Amino acid sequence: MRQISIFVLLGISAMFGCQMCSADDDTIARSNGFEISIEEFGTSFYLEADAENERNITDADFLAVIKQNWRQGRRSNTPTHWGSIDLSGCVNITDAGLEALKNKNAAGLLELDLDGCRKVTDKGLEHIKGLKKLRDLDLSRCGQITDAGLIHLKGLTKLRDLDLSRCEQITDAGLIHLKGLPELREIDIAGCSKITDAGIQDLKTSLPKCKIER
Predict the structure, then answer these.
(1) Looking at the 3D structure of the chain, how many domains does it have?
(2) pLDDT value, residue 104
């Protein structure tokens, strides 16, 4: 992990009223039973839920972090550009929390990991459809997502990697919504027992360069 500016540490500590961690520690903020790390990611930032406390992170926690503006280690009026957000294992994140992704700070998001966010439904995916630069999307173990939810991915034409593993309600009908994503190079549908060989073959016909893991 890159060296994190002390100004970022001080700013987050002040924002949350939380314990500040060492700049050599991956975790830079502790508050209300959750831990989050933020790293400069080129000209944008990287946000990751800490594995030890991911189950305690709520929609309110996520909203509070994502809307903050950071520039060169200090809070400012200039929007922060989030490059990557990892909420894997955050079982208390709901559709309401994902509304934070409509914030201007998230407009340039490249990577989003919602693995195991089991309270996220089709309605939550509606908040993702505006992330036009998104390249990697992990929806694995989001068991409430159905074919209807995948329609919100149709406009994500930069998407390259999509993980739908163990989304057990997805069927061949859902795969149809992915046919118009020309950059897709890999889709994981392991554990999607309702998807048939015929559905996979139909998708391969539309996306011949895409590797489909099953």
Answers:
(1) 1
(2) 83
Say if CB 104 and CB 128 are below 8 A apart. no
pLDDT at 27: 47
The tokens for 124 are: 């939550």
Show the CA angle centred on residue 197, arms to residues 191 and 203, nearest 5°: 95
Main-chain dihedrals φ then ψ at residue 136, nearest 5 degrees:
-125, 125
Specify the pTM.
Answer: 0.82
124 touches 94 (CB < 8 A): yes
Q: What pLDDT is recorded for position 100?
A: 92
Residue 208 lies in a domain: yes
Give CA–CA dist 101/156, Å, rounded: 14
CA–CA dist 85, 106 (Å, integer): 9
User: Nearest-CA neighbor of 36 among 75, 107, 56?
Assistant: 56
Please list the rounded mean pLDDT of every run of 10 residues in the chain (214 residues): 34 44 45 48 71 85 76 55 89 96 89 97 96 97 98 97 98 97 98 98 97 96
Report the CATH number that the domain containing residue 26 is assigned in CATH: 3.80.10.10
DSSP label at residue 2: P
Query: Would 150 be classed as within a structural domain?
Result: yes
Range of the structural domain that residue 51 is part of: 6-213
Largest separation between any pair of C-alpha atoms in the chain = 55
